[in-house]
Amino acid sequence: xxxxxxxxRTPFRLTLLFLALFVAAAGxxxxxxxxxxATEARARAEADVRSEVGVxxxxxxxxxxxxxxxxxxxxxxxxxxxxxxxxxxxRKVITGNVSESPFEGTDSAGAGRWSTFRLxxxxxxxxxxxxxxxxxxxxxxxxxxxxxxxxxGDTEAYLGRLTQALWAAMLLVLLLGAGGGLIVSRNVxxxxxxxxxxxxxxxxxxxxxRADVRRSGDELDELGAGLNxxxxxLEVSMASIRHAGDAIAHDLRSPLTRMRAKMExxxxxxxxxxxxxxxxxHIALDEADALLKTFxxxxxxxxxxxxxxxxxxxxxxxxxxxxxxxxxLYEPAAxxxxxxxxxEIERGLLIEANxxxxxxxxxxxxxxxxxxxxxxxxxxxxxxxxxxxEVEFSVTDTGPGVPAEDRERVTQRFVRLDNSxxxxxxxxxxxxxxxxxxxHGGRLMLDEGPGVHDGFGPxxxxxxxxxxxxxxTAAS
Amino acid sequence: MRILVVEDxxxxxxxxxxxxxxxxxxxxxxxxxxFGLLEAQKGGYDVYxxxxxxxxxxxxxMVETLRRDGDQTPVLFLSALGEVEDRVxxxxxxxxxxxxxxxxxxxxxxxVEALSRRRETGSVATMLKVGDLEMNLxxxxxxxxxxxxxxxxxxxxxxxxxxxxAGQSVTRTMLLExxxxxxxxxxxxxxxxxxxxxxxxxxKGFDKxxxxxxxxxxxxxxx
Lengths: 476, 223
Fold this sequence. Notes:
The structure holds two protein chains of two kinds. By secondary structure, chain A is α+β, with helices and mostly antiparallel strands. Chain A has helices spanning about 5, 10-80, 155-205, 220-270, 275-305, 320-335, 355-370, 430-440, and strands at about 80-85, 95, 110-120, 130-140, 145-150, 315-320, 340-345, 350-355, 380-385, 390-395, 445-450, 460-465.
């Protein structure tokens, strides 16, 4: 990792931000501690001095200047941090443990004000040092001037050491923080790098690239696993789109070819005067309409397949009503062909389905049955609830049926058995039914019909089995 | 009839305008939803034919705006998409009918005429009368020349729809959608069989055949 690029990395920037916030917070706390300690030390020293002044002043009032002098001598000998100086009215030194009042030569001499000053003293080893002190001067009733102060140099030195320690701590925090940030960001960078490489590979068209997942269970692993799942899904749907595209191209080529041939024939006929141009145009229009119908069916199949088991626009409704409507719609057409059409529909068959698609599927089954059963045969529609709770629609006819070995094949696109080629149709009817059923999570079953008798049969029984509608939730 | 055609595809619009004027209607063209709205606000139209996908203001937006402004002129929605959800969106926006492209002219004209008729019969009629054919909507009886005609419930509904649109062509798809209320392709012409049953009941034994087949379009009930 190059240094300048480091600053663009999120973990490192976050570390720096965090560090800056931490330093600011710690600095504020430490500054407060410093100010509080210094103020406290000064206040304590002032209180000491004030009480000492009080004691000495009352001694002076009670027993006069000599007693005060005596007391100061004793106190000076005893030692300690306190500073004393007694001067006469002309500010000539009488006694004390400092040589000169710090107020000497200032206008506030004897005015009872506080002063901070540096006291020049020698330490135990003879070194000269300037020590921070405070003091106050007051005029006695006899004209003498008393100065009392305190050496607060020790406190000062303590605060100085404290400050040094604080600065050192800050520096350490900065160094450790920056170092930690570097390590953290390098680690995150390594994990992110793995994910980034996958994303880049996919961008470059390699849909097979997958992230390594270390199973540490952290969020980066979760992201990696999520990315992999997403790519799996994407790969599947890309494949199905490609498949649908191929299928559509394949599905439309034959009807287009047929249409072209018919139009060519119509044109030849029109040119040779066998038919007029209007007739040729009618044929062309009919063929275009048929092609569009095929196209719409192919598109519907592709969409249903792309839905991958999820019903598009589902609604809960009674399948019994649908079956009854379909029976009512197709019954006259069956009777027109001298067929016996019957329906046996149980009531109350709630399902969750796409109604137009399901209607189309059922219509296709009935239409097939009516189309392939010869006159005089029978078609029966049944709708019932199976013991499993599933809803079953079945259409049974007495037509030629579908041999067992072909039953799988007829649900595929454009498959038409040889003996059905004379009937009109695209060969997509059962494929659409299959697609509708699969999108609804159901299944399609083809069986033999009622068998051979009276020159009919063996017939075909086609059943669509759909899961029942989910029970309504108790809360709603 | 005065029809406003709102369609951004100029070729499709030109063909539609020609088809409508040949059917005896006056058609005005607007190139997108925004122009369509301006034109519609001038008033005087019997039906709006609105394409769904258009630049600037699309069909859904235009119809929603019209309805919000209180314009109740019937709208026929056109769309290249035939999905259920698109039909639902169109109807929810306030359209009265929906037609998927590509369509036959006969289908378009039949639907446009059906829409304009719908508005005229705003009042609740209890009797429908076409020539000597009479329908009592309360008693649910039908008479022709005073003779009672016995109809199944669906035949009654079918005849009611045809009588409400008497003199107009109605297509098979329209009948499946409006009478049976299904939107799918019935493969074979099941509707034709229902019509021929109805025809045998209302026309058989009478001098004049009222239920006509219109070539390339559908059916028409005429006095």
